[in-house]
Amino acid sequence: MKIVYASRSGNVEKIVNQLGYADTLKIEKGNESIDGDYVIFTYSTGKGQTPKPVEEFLSHNPGVQAVVGSGSMEKHAATFNYAADNISKAYGVPVLAKLDGVGTEEDLKALTQALKNL
Ligand SMILES: Cc1cc2nc3c(=O)[nH]c(=O)nc-3n(C[C@H](O)[C@H](O)[C@H](O)COP(=O)(O)O)c2cc1C
Predict the structure, then answer these.
(1) H helices then E strands: how many in the chain?
(2) Measuring from atom 18 of ligand 1, which residue has the nearest CA?
């Protein structure tokens, strides 16, 4: 499975790197393209917003299979990981994990398993 991700301050990138997947693509502007199925990893921004480049990427890359979010429980508890929920609803795909920051070791183990089960 391919992993596509957006990361503004490095948390999502760290999560993705720790998973050790060979096939990853970082969204910068949103105009990138990918063939086939992928899982999207995203942070949340604003008050529970999906980052604009992520929205744009999703709008023209139809292969999304699942979503993983990274948010901040400490600073944004009321809208914790809303971007992952937004994408899940809009595209009818499961949320595999809602991580707080870079997540814990256990979170990453569970996520590795969830990715394998896709
Ligand atoms: C301006 C701003 C708004 C944010 N809004 C939310 C939010 O609504 N919900 C949430 O869970 N996290 C929110 N966050 C936290 C980030 O999503 C979280 O720190 C994430 O781990 C960042 O990932 P990155 O380091 O890969 O960019 C916000 C962060 C910033 C800077």
Answers:
(1) 4, 5
(2) 71
φ/ψ of 51, rounded to 5, equals -60, 140
**Contact residues for 1 (Cβ-Cβ < 8 A; gap 6+):** 21, 23, 37, 38, 39, 65, 115, 118
pTM value?
A: 0.98
pLDDT digits (tens, 9 = 90+) for 20-69: 999 999 999 999 999 999 999 999 999 999 999 999 999 999 999 999 99
Ligand 1 atom with minimal separation from the 5 CA: 26
Identify the CATH class of 2-111. Answer: alpha beta
Cα(113) to centroid(ligand 1), Å = 25
Atom of ligand 1 nearest to the CA of 44: 17
